[in-house]
Amino acid sequence: MIARFVKSSTALWGLLFAITWALSNYSFQLYKTYDARWIIRYPKQWELPLENVISDFFDWLAETAGFYLFSFKDLTRAIAALIEAPYQVLRNLLIEGFQSGYGDTAVQLAPSLSWIAIIIAAIAIGHYARNWALAALIGICFTYLAVFGQWESAMITLSSVLIAVPLGAVGGLLLGISAYRRPWFDKTLRPVLDLMQTVPVFAYLVPILILFGFGPVASLIATIIYAMPPMVRVTIVALKSVPEEFVEAGRMAGSTQRQMMWKVLVPSAAPTLMVGVNQVIMLTLNMVIIASMIGAGGLGFDVLASLRKLDIGGGIEAGLGIVVLAIALDRGSQAFATRRQQYIPTGNILQRKPRLVTVLMVIVVTLLVGKFYSSIQAYPESLTITTGHFWSETMKYINVNFFDTFESIKTVILQWLLLPVKKFFSGIPWAWGIIVTGMIAWRVGGWRLGLLAFLLMTFIAASGLWSKAMITIYLCGVSVFLATIIGIPLGIWAAESPRAGRVILGLMDTLQTLPSFVYLIPVIMLFRVGDFSAMIAVVLYALAPAVRYAAHGLREVPTQLIEAGLVAGCTKRQLLWRIKLPLATPQLLLGLNQTIMLALSMLVITALVGTRDLGQEVYIALTKANAGQGVVAGLCVAFIAIISDRIVNALAEDRRNRLGL
Fold first, then answer.
1. Average pLDDT over residues 431-438
2. CA-CA distance, 657 to 375, in Å (whole number)?
3. How far apart are the first and last CA of the chain?
4. Which of 134, 205, 340, 614 supports an S-S bond with 130, CB 3.0-4.6 Å?
5. Rounded-to-integer distance, Cα 427 and Cα 632, Å
6. 162-338 topology per CATH
7. Are both 162-338 and 404-423+465-659 of the same fold?
8. What is the mean pLDDT of the chain?
9. Left if phi > 0, otherwise alpha if psi is -120 to 50, otherwise beta: which for 528?
């Protein structure tokens, strides 16, 4: 079955690529013969003036728009003030202390929590969430931040996380509940969520920078917008997955609509909802470096500053600080997602809340003792360990001794893979590209999907960004291809061998906790800037879903079908290729879908390493605060992601129908 599917699909795609190549060459001949530039490039006079319209609209919002009693600027300032107040309290509590006055006249009212108290509190939370093993892991992570000189920056980042995560999680929960209750709102919200999840994060920053100014509040708002969509989707799925018998029991008990939601549905869906909270945490941490471009401090700013100065050691140290903080928060939130209600003994508060009492006692003691011994209040600088020199020397050693090897690998891949594919996509005329995309979508998902793909690709051409969109598709396509051919075999190995699975999936956990900017540091140092460096970073960032979905798909194959294959005399190889992989095809396609989404999101960030695609267009818009340019380029990336998402989902649905799943 899968052999016929692969053969037919290969023949179809091969025919389309051959026709595209031939028509591209023919179009160039027509262009040279008749000087018909419009055949190759979309005519300038046909381009939509969206960039100016959008820029003027945001200028109007920021300067003129009003609501009778107050202006739009007053509204944004009020929102900023509401977010800034708790954020500043957390910064004062964790790192800066509470002061009265400004500048030289400032008076210290109360110190911040000591580093010891914060570590003890983190350990107590880990123990409350699961056990002493998790408590020890979280304690080691926070101690690492202090010992390796990342404490102050980490606490600023943690302040942002502690504000952005509750707002993103609660906002996503409320939107998800509204969508669950009202089908019309669900249908309206889905395309908005699609855009929020596919528009590059840099594109968020441009209008937010215009409306809220430069500073940590603007970065927090951008982070909340970026991190909220997964929580909305998880909430909708979680509420719809609550067993019907629970709902019936609530109705029989006479619950009102409000009681049904908050007493029955939300508590029953709590474990799944915590998965959404975990996603919000990870996306928030992924955003901290990007948000540092518009005024957020912390570890993200340290990484960005190191990248700009090519400070290898400092960049890796700050990047590791983000990784360590991400591991602590990720493992803690996962533990809360699976935590069961524990028996609370009766008695005094020490018996009922031993962890809380211990933390409060440590806070009081460290505050008192810290007045006399500064090392209790702040980690002593003399005991700080730095690994910056080690990382710098390591990179220098690798570059000196393995430069020729890396350069040879880079040259071969550039000449035999990247440049030919880039030439192919760069040569696709806009009209034929629109038609072919529409035909592929129609062939896979029907006329509605074909029309959607046709219209979205037409928008890309009409925006004047066709050539940059083709570079984006080329880089994304090559990166996804490499991530897939590496990830699927690793997923198969992880599924077939439990021991290998623990190592491989553990490595994927680590890769998923690394913020996207962290991948750029070693890649730039080893391969310098360019398309090859961008491709390596994208492959590493997008590899995890290909591995995870492949492993999950093979493990989910029904046992009775495997036993039937064994009874029929299948060898281990035949069992894999004739039973497991065909049945796991829908999961493999879903993994491909997620790989494409991650690749597109990473491509925008690789604009910092010299790519010339839509990501660079968005980044230039950010540096110039050009809202129109950033939004249009961001929409083009989003439309490429939406087309890819719909086509791959249609393929997965078709495979499920064929397999009767």
1. 85
2. 65
3. 15
4. 134
5. 23
6. MetI-like fold (1.10.3720)
7. yes
8. 80
9. left
307-366: pLDDT as tens digits: 777 777 777 788 888 888 888 887 887 787 666 655 555 555 555 677 777 888 888 888
Partners of 108 in the β-ladder: 99
Question: Please, how many CA atoms are within 13 Å of residue 119, restricted to the half-sphere of its CB?
Answer: 20
Say if CB 91 and CB 160 are below 8 A apart. no
Nearest CA to 479 among 319, 634, 606?
606
Highest-pLDDT range among 23-27, 114-118, 563-567: 114-118
**Measured on CA atoms in the order 198, 202, 207, 211, is the torsion positive or negative?**
positive
DSSP label of 114: P
* 3-state class (DSSP) for residue 108: strand
Average pLDDT over residues 119-125: 90
Domain boundaries, the chain: 162-338, 404-423+465-659
Tokens encoding 319: 């990047």
Which value, in Å, is the radius of gyration of the alpha carbons in the chain?
27
AA identity, residue 537: A
- Least confident window among 163-172, 190-199, 492-501: 190-199
Task: For residue 345, give both structure tokens.
Answer: 């003994």
The label of the residue with tokens 């699609």 reads: 194
Closest CA to 389 of 311, 450, 441: 311
Does the model's pTM come out above 0.85?
no
Structure tokens at 616: 């660079």
136 C-beta neighbours (distance < 10 Å), count: 13
C-alpha to C-alpha distances, 329 to 158, 339, 410, 441, nearest whole angstrom: 10, 15, 37, 40
Residue 461 · residue 430 · CB < 8 Å: yes
Q: Tell me the residue length of the chain.
A: 661
Q: What is the largest CA-CA distance in the chain?
A: 93
Residues β-bridged to residue 107:
100
Q: So what's the pLDDT on residue 654?
A: 77
Distance CA 142, CA 172 (A): 29
Question: Would the pLDDT of 498 be above 50?
Answer: yes
Q: Tell me the two tokens of residue 38.
A: 């419009």
Q: Pick from 402, 604, 643: which is nearest to 522 by CA?
A: 402
- Residues 354 and 91 sit within 8 Å (Cβ to Cβ): no
Q: Which of 2, 163, 148 is nearest to 89 (CA)?
A: 163
Q: Which residues have C-beta within 8 Å of that of residue 184, sequence separation ≥ 6?
A: none
The string of DSSP letters for 275-304 reads HHHHHHHHHHHHHHHHHGGGT--SHHHHHH
Residue, of 513 and 70, whose pLDDT is higher: 70
Sole residue written with tokens 């533990």 = 335
Assign domain 404-423+465-659 to its CATH architecture. Answer: Orthogonal Bundle (1.10)
More confident residue, 32 or 56: 56
Candidates 247, 120, 112, 229; CA nearest to 175 is 229
pLDDT in tens, 77-97: 888 888 888 888 888 888 877
Short-list 612, 604, 605, CA closest to 640: 604
| Integer angstrom CA distances of residue 141 from 71, 164, 220, 246, 297 | 46, 21, 24, 40, 20
Give the per-residue pLDDT at 348. Answer: 58
